[in-house]
Design a protein that fits this description.
The structure is a single chain. The chain has 240 residues and is α/β, with parallel strands linked by helices. Helix content is 45%, strand content 15%. It is built from nine helices and nine strands. The strands form two sheets. A seven-stranded mixed sheet has the order 1-8-7-2-5-3-4, sandwiched between helices. Strands 6-9 form a two-stranded parallel sheet. Helix 2 packs across helix 3, helix 5 runs parallel beside helix 6 and helix 6 packs across helix 8. The protein starts with a helix and ends with a helix. It comes from Streptomyces fungicidicus. Keywords: Acyltransferase, Transferase. This is 1-acyl-sn-glycerol-3-phosphate acyltransferase.
């Protein structure tokens, strides 16, 4: 009930007013039955823009930190994300990937639409990064199509560190469904999972037009953060 209230009354109209989304390829999203929508992830606003324009309800796997904040604000944030159709996933530890897959398969098992960002985190610089294989594992185990999706303009509307998005027109592009039934029964083969994931990311890249980086976003961001820390330390030492 609250999902519909957010979509049609509280949040959806505001998002449409702020971003005037131009949507392409919406006919590629099936009107019923289980499917995965796999897209790039450029902004915090992505979580809400796609549900606002889709005719169907879509459930996203979201990082658990959104659901565990302290105090009244944390509880309100958690309630909002749950009401908006987000499922918390702990991304730390060895079992994090398997937990996400289990949650995703539960959504698909109910014949619903699952949204996932294969990069695993928001792009910190607007480029498209290597996808993690969880999306392939879910697609093969559930036997469902994958619809590639590209958000265009949301990075400029709300880059990392900016609390509130700036009004600007954005585009949302959906590609033709990808059928991986030829790989049925091979969900435990690492080479197959990598190939399927790369095919999905290639489709997203064709829609988004981003620069592609064949490395995981989290690794690149960690390296850049480390270099900045070392540079600051070096500056402090020179100042002394």
């Amino acid at each position: 009930m609250f999902y519909q209230l957010l979509k049609y009354v509280l949040l959806g109209p505001l998002l449409r007013l702020m971003f005037r989304p131009r949507v392409e390829g919406l006919e590629h999203v099936p009107e019923e039955g289980a499917a995965i929508v796999a897209g790039n992830h450029l902004s915090f606003a992505d979580h809400f823009l796609m549900p606002a324009i889709l005719h169907r309800r879509i459930t996203f796997l979201a990082k658990a930190e959104y659901f565990t904040g302290p105090g009244v604000r944390g509880r309100l944030t958690a309630a909002f994300f749950r009401s908006a159709g987000q499922i918390p996933v702990d991304r730390s530890g060895r079992e994090a990937g398997q937990a996400a897959i289990r949650e995703g398969l539960g959504v698909l098992g109910r014949g619903e639409l699952l949204g996932i960002y294969p990069e695993g985190t928001r792009s910190h610089d607007g480029r498209l990064y290597k996808g993690k294989v969880g999306v392939a594992a879910m697609a093969l185990r559930a036997g469902v199509p994958v619809i590639p999706c590209a958000m265009i303009g949301t990075f400029e509307a709300q880059p990392p560190g900016q609390k509130f998005p700036s009004p600007r027109r954005i585009r949302i592009r959906f590609g033709e469904p990808l059928d991986f039934s030829r790989h049925a029964g091979l969900a435990d083969e690492k080479a197959v999972l990598r190939a399927v994931t790369d095919e999905i990311m290639t489709a997203v890249l064709a829609l988004s037009g981003q620069e592609y980086v064949d490395r995981y976003a989290a690794e690149v961001k960690a390296e850049e953060d480390q270099r900045r820390k070392e540079s600051r330390r070096a500056g402090i030492r020179r100042g002394n």
